[in-house]
Amino acid sequence: MSTDVPDSATPRSSGFQRVLDAFLLRPGLPFADVLSAERIEQVFAKHNALFGIHGIYSTAVMVWSFLGQVLCDGKEAACQAAVARVVSYCLLFGEEQPTADTGDYCRARAKLSEPALRELTCEVAHEMESSADVAWLWKGLHAKVIDGFTFTMPDTPANQVAYPQQQSQKPGVGQPIARAVAILSLATAAIMDLAIGPYAGKQTEETALLRSILKSLSAGDIAVLDRYYCSFMMIALMQQQGAQVCSRMHQSRHTDFRRGKRLGKFDHVIVWTRPPCPAWMDWSASVSVVTTVIVFVRRPFSTML
């Protein structure tokens, strides 16, 4: 993957919009010159999701077009505009052009595999992270911000089954809603990993989603957490991956500066001991977790590292 961002942004744009313009204003399809067709085909073939090898709407063309459609807004996000961009791409490279009918485009887009897109995203993100300039790191560590959010989606029967609307809403009134947790790199602003689940139900809370993607952390990382995740088991599991942790103290945990080892006026060190096996964890897995973690606490912000 090329690491160069095309320099074709409009003079008035700034920040993230400038980066978007650099891709969206180029001839053809966005990302076609930085995300190779070979890489896309390799990942989708791994998931048995490769399609349109000899057709107009090939897997690579649909990934490029879909990315551009997501990043556009207004009329440019419409399927008709997306088809027009594919036509422009085909003209640019002398290939067969699609018809103006959006039906073929929409059917091809529906074939895009979510697991393949997820793997492709994570693969590119980790490649960017490994090539990040040292000046982008924090004291030589890769800072990874972790937080959760919710989002709604079109009210279709399939979406309602997978991501039911909130129980407080009457049928036919609300929208399907999902909960997600993301690991975001502060060095590259790339999503390193993402877990999505229903808004409510067993093992759908943010902590459960986060545990499913902890493998994305490794030695040399420092996880910057919301205080909601600040617990012994979460910290211990992240340390098992080799990562360090920085978080505000959980609101239900009392901090007593009369205990532990004092380092300064606003700092001290304490030792947390492993709690009983939680309901979500197998006993055999819980006993493999370290029995203690050393916590550095600083006030008045009650941050810990």
What does this structure look like?
The chain is of the alpha+beta class and 305 residues long. The protein has two domains: 15-115, no CATH class; 132-304, no CATH class. The protein is 32% helix and 19% strand. The protein has ten helices and nine strands. The protein has helices at 15-24, 37-46, 59-71, 79-92, 102-109, 114-130, 157-162, 206-211, 232-240, 283-287, and strands spanning 142-152, 177-185, 191-198, 221-225, 244-248, 261-264, 267-273, 292-298, 303-304. A nine-stranded mixed β-sheet has the order 3-2-1-4-5-9-8-7-6. A hairpin with a 2-residue loop joins β6 and β7 (267-273). The longest helix is centred in the middle third of the chain and has 17 residues, at 114-130. It is elongated and about 75 Å long. The two termini are 35 Å apart. Mean pLDDT is 88; it is low at 5-9.
Q: What are the main properties of this structure?
A:
9 strands, alpha+beta
Query: Structurally, how many domains make up the residues?
Result: 2
Beta-strand residue fraction: 15-25%
Q: Within the largest sheet, what's the order of strands?
A: 3-2-1-4-5-9-8-7-6
**What is the average of the pLDDT values?**
88
Oligomer: single chain
**How are helices and strands ordered from N to C?**
HHHHHHEHEEHEHEEEHEE
What is the number of helices? 10
Low-confidence stretches: 5-9
Largest sheet: 9 strands, mixed
Shape category:
elongated
Output the radius of gyration.
23 Å
| Count of strand segments | 9
- In which range does the helix fraction lie? 25-40%
Class derived from helix and strand content? alpha+beta
Gap from first CA to last CA: 35 Å
